[in-house]
Amino acid sequence: xxxxxxxxxxxxxxxxxxxxxxxxxxxxxxxxxxxxxxxxxxxxxxxxxxxxxxxxxxxxxxxxxxxxxxxxxxxxxxxxxxxxxxxxxxxxxxxxxxxxxxxxxxxxxx
Length: 110
Known about the structure:
Elements: E1 4-8, E2 11-19, H1 23-34, H2 40-51, E3 62-67, E4 71-79, E5 84-92, H3 95-107
Antiparallel strand pairs: 1-2, 2-5, 3-4, 4-5
Helix pairs in contact: 1-3
């Protein structure tokens, strides 16, 4: 299960962590849930943005909107020196979608 969950304005957020090496696949999987692709240009932009993040500084977190059939937003920040990235995923209140996002956070990393 993700580290934590909260709700606001019809959206739910689940937070957890992902190994740094698994972030591209994690975000691509979230994009697929949203009904869109996450291409090489998207990955390059995310890599650049993540390099400037620090989990200890909320003002530096990267926010990626994944709009397709469903609106998802993932907020990411690197935990320096650990090889992990914190992730918080916002999505419409939906039980099935919650299970799928939670599964990605629980099992989507090596």
